[in-house]
C-alpha cells in the first residue's frame, strides 16, 4: 500500500473516531471484544480512552488505587472538553465512561480478547505481570505490551504461549497521536499480528509494522535528530537557539531539537538514547552525549523542572539565535543527512517498508516530510557527499554512510518513483 493511500484512510478513520458511539456500529462482530488495559498512568489512561471511544468495553487495572482514581477523573475531564468543543455528544461521553471500568484485580480480565500492558518500564515487573495474566485469560486472548524500549521477545519469554504476545506501541498522548507501531516478536503468531493490526486500524490509528529491534522505528531513527544537534553544539559550531532556529526555518520542523528535548524531558530522552545505544551493542551512531547526561544528573529535565537547555523561569529571557543563512543550511544538511542515513539503514535491514518508515516519522514525531521521500528530493548524491565528508574528516564510525545509500547512488536509484526525473532514475528499492 502506498503512502498517500494510507493518508486518506487515516483522515476517514479519524473522523469516525470523533463520532464515538457511531464508530461502535462500524466495528464488526469479529472485533467486538473486551479490552483490558494494565497500568492507568499517562499511556494506559490514553489507550483506554481510545479503545472505549472505538466502542469497546474496557477494563483498566492498576496496582495503585490513586492512579485508577486519577485516570477516571482525567477521562471525565477530557470528555467534558470534547463535548464543549462539540467533538462528541453528551451521550457519547456518558457511553464511553459507562464502558470503562476500573478494577482492582487482574482476575477481572477473564473476558478480554486483547490486553494492552502499559505499566512501569521494567522487564522483571512486566514479565511477572504477563506470566500471572496468562493463568487468568482465555487461550486466544492477545497479550500486548506498550513498551518503548524492551524487547517483545524478552517479555514473551515469561509466557507459556509466547506466540500470543506482541508489541503495540502508542505515542503520547495516545488519543491524539495517530501512529501506532505494531511489533511482532520472534515467537508471535502471524494471526495475532494480523488481528492486532486490523483492530488498531479500526480504532482510527495509523499502524506501521516493524521488527523487534531497539527503539523500533521512531525511537531509533529520531536519535540522530537529537544526537547530531548536540554534537554540533558541543563542537561550538552553533548554540542551542541557533540550531533550533535552523531546524525550524531551514528544515521546517515544528520544534528544534533542544526545545523538543526540553519538552519531552531530558530524563526520558537521555534514558531512551542510553537504552538504544546499549541494546545495539554500543553502536557509535547512538552514543549518548555527556552534555545531556549532565543535564539529566543535575535534574535539569526541561519544561517540567523549569530548566533544561533553556531556562523557563518567569522573567527568564530566551537566547536569540544567530540567523545566518549559510550556517543554518550547514546545520540542517548535517542533521538531515544523519537522519536519512538512519532511515536508510532501517530500510536496508528490513525493519519496515519505506512507506512505513516515512509514515512513522511524520505521524509519530510530526516530521514535516518522510525522511526517504526527503532524501529523494534533496538528492541522495548530496546526502552521500555530506556523510562521506563527515566520515573522512572525523574518521568516526558514527558517520559511515549506509551501504544502501552508496549502492543507490551508484545505480541512480530513488526510494520512490519520481516521474519528474529522467528515465533511468525511477527504480525503487522496495
Ligand atoms: N510516556 C510516554 O511518552 C510513553 C510513550 C510510549 C510508550 N510508553 C511506555 O508505556 C509504559 C507506561 O508508561 P507511562 O508513561 O504511562 O508510565 P506511568 O508511570 O505514567 O504509568 C505507569 C502506571 O503503571 C502502574 N504500575 C506499575 N507497576 C504495576 C504493576 N505491577 N501492576 C499494575 N500497575 C502497575 C503505576 O501505578 C502507574 O500508574 C511504559 O512501558 C513506557 O515505556 C511511554
Architecture overview:
It is a single chain. By secondary structure, the chain is an alpha/beta fold. Strands 3-2-1-4-5-6-7-8 form an eight-stranded mixed β-sheet, sandwiched between helices. Mean pLDDT is 92; it is low at 1-25. It has 19 helices and eight strands. The longest helix is centred in the C-terminal third of the chain and has 24 residues, at 325-348. Strand 4, helix 6 and strand 5 (142-145) form a beta-alpha-beta unit. The protein folds into two domains: 3-212, Rossmann fold, CATH 3.40.50.720; 219-430, N-(1-d-carboxylethyl)-l-norvaline Dehydrogenase, domain 2. It has helices spanning 3-18, 21-26, 42-53, 65-84, 90-99, 123-134, 152-156, 190-202, 218-221, 223-234, 240-249, 257-264, 266-279, 290-297, 325-348, 354-364, 371-378, 380-394, 403-410, and strands spanning 34-38, 58-61, 100-103, 112-117, 142-145, 165-170, 179-184, 206-209. The protein binds nicotinamide-adenine-dinucleotide (NAD). Residues 38-44, 62-64, 67, 118-121, 125, 129, 146-148, 170-172 line the site of nicotinamide-adenine-dinucleotide.
Summarize the structure.
With 430 residues, the chain is α/β, with parallel strands linked by helices. The chain contains 19 helices and eight strands. It is globular.
CATH topology of the largest domain: N-(1-d-carboxylethyl)-l-norvaline Dehydrogenase, domain 2
Order of helices and strands: HHEHEHHEEHEHEEHEHHHHHHHHHHH
What is the strand tally? 8
Q: Helix fraction?
A: 40-55%
Query: Largest sheet, described in full?
Result: 8 strands, mixed
Amino acid at each position: 500500500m502506498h503512502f498517500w493511500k494510507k493518508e486518506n484512510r487515516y483522515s476517514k478513520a479519524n473522523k469516525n473516531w470523533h463520532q464515538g458511539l457511531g464508530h461502535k456500529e462500524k466495528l464488526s462482530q469479529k472485533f467486538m471484544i473486551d479490552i483490558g488495559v494494565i497500568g492507568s498512568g499517562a499511556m494506559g489512561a490514553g489507550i483506554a480512552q481510545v479503545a472505549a471511544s472505538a466502542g469497546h468495553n474496557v477494563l483498566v487495572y492498576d496496582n495503585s488505587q490513586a492512579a485508577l482514581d486519577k485516570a477516571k477523573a482525567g477521562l471525565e475531564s477530557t470528555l467534558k472538553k470534547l463535548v464543549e468543543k462539540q467533538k462528541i455528544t453528551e451521550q457519547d461521553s456518558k457511553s464511553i465512561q459507562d464502558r470503562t471500568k476500573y478494577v482492582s484485580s487482574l482476575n477481572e480480565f477473564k473476558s478480554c480478547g486483547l490486553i494492552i500492558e502499559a505499566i512501569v518500564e521494567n522487564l522483571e515487573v512486566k514479565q511477572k505481570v504477563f506470566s500471572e495474566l496468562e493463568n487468568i485469560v482465555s487461550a486466544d486472548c492477545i497479550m500486548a505490551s506498550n513498551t518503548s524500549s524492551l524487547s517483545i521477545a524478552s517479555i514473551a519469554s515469561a509466557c507459556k504461549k509466547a506466540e500470543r504476545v506482541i508489541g503495540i506501541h502508542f505515542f503520547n498522548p495516545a488519543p491524539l497521536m495517530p501512529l501506532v507501531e505494531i511489533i511482532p516478536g520472534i515467537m508471535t503468531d502471524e494471526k495475532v499480528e494480523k488481528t492486532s493490526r486490523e483492530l488498531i486500524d479500526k480504532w482510527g490509528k495509523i499502524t506501521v509494522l516493524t521488527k523487534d529491534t531497539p527503539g523500533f522505528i521512531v525511537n531509533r531513527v529520531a536519535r540522530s535528530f537529537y544526537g547530531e544537534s548536540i554534537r554540533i553544539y558541543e563542537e561550538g559550531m552553533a548554540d542551542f537557539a541557533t540550531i533550533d532556529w535552523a531546524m525550524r526555518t531551514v528544515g521546517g520542523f515544528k520544534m528544534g531539537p533542544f526545545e523538543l528535548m526540553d519538552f519531552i524531558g531530558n530524563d526520558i530522552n537521555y534514558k531512551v538514547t542510553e537504552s538504544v545505544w546499549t541494546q545495539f551493542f554500543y553502536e557509535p551512531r547512538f552514543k549518548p552525549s555527556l552534555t545531556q547526561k549532565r543535564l539529566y544528573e543535575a535534574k535539569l529535565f526541561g519544561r517540567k523542572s523549569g530548566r533544561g537547555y533553556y531556562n523557563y523561569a518567569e522573567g527568564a529571557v530566551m537566547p536569540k539565535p544567530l540567523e545566518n543563512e549559510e550556517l543554518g543550511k550547514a546545520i540542517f544538511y548535517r542533521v538531515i543527512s544523519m537522519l536519512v542515513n538512519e532511515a536508510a539503514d532501517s530500510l536496508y535491514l528490513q525493519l519496515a517498508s519505506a512507506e512505513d518508515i516515512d509514515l512513522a516519522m511524520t505521524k509519530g514525531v510530526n516530521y514535516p516530510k518522510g525522511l526517504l521521500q526527503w532524501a529523494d528530493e534533496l538528492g541522495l548524491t548530496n546526502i552521500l557527499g555530506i556523510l562521506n565528508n563527515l566520515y573522512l574528516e572525523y574518521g568516526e564510525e558514527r558517520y559511515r554512510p549506509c551501504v544502501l545509500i552508496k549502492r543507490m547512488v551508484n545505480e541512480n536509484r530513488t526510494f520512490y518513483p519520481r516521474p519528474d526525473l529522467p528515465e533511468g532514475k525511477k527504480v525503487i528499492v522496495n
